[in-house]
Amino acid sequence: MRAAPLCAALLACAACEMEELPEINVFRPDYQGVETRLLAENLVNLIVRMEGARDGEDVSDYARCAAAQYALIRGFGFARHVRTSVEERAGLWSGDAVYTVSPDLPRGVRTIDAEVVVDDCQARGIPTI
Fold first, then answer.
1. CA–CA dist 31, 128 (Å, integer)
2. Under a CB-based contact definition with an 8 Å cutoff, are residues 49 and 89 in contact?
3. Which terminus of the chain is more solvent-facing, meaning fewer CB atoms within 10 Å of its CB: N or C?
C-alpha cells in the first residue's frame, strides 16, 4: 500500500524533470543612429543602424519611428511606407527605408499618423531621430 504513493511521487518528480524551462530572451537593443537623405520634396530615405535586434522587424520599427519624427519635424502629419531593406552583418543590423511625407493622409494601406507613431515609439523606448 505504501508503493502507490511512492510511485505517484516518483512519476510527478519525473514529469518535473522533463518539463522544459522557459527560455529567457532579454531584448537590449543598441540604437546607433539615423541618417536621413531628402530624395524629393516629400520623399525621404532613412538609414538606421542597430545592434541587438531580434529580427528585421525591430530594424523596420526603428526606421518607422524615425520616419514619423521626420514627418513632424518637416511640419507634416503623415507618412507612407514605400520600402525597407534590412540586412545583418556580424551582429550589426541596418535598414534602408523610404517614406513619403505629407500634410494630409496619403492614399494607400501603409500609411502612418506621425504623432500617434511617435508616441508609441517613445512608450516602447525606440528613439525617433
1. 10
2. no
3. N
For 27-52, what is each residue's pLDDT tens digit? 899 999 999 999 999 999 999 999 99
What cell numbers appear for 126 in the block? 525606440
User: Please, where are the H alpha helices in the chain?
Assistant: 3-18, 56-73, 114-124
Grid cell at residue 11: 512519476
The rounded distance, in Å, linking the Cα atoms of 91 and 98 is 23
Q: State the Cα–Cα distance between residues 67 and 45, nearest whole angstrom.
A: 9
Q: Is the pTM of this model over 0.90?
A: no
For 32, the grid coordinates are: 546607433
* Statement: residue 60 has pLDDT above 90: yes
For the record, the C-alpha cell of 48 comes out as 538606421
> Could you tell me the domains of the chain?
30-124 (3.30.1360)
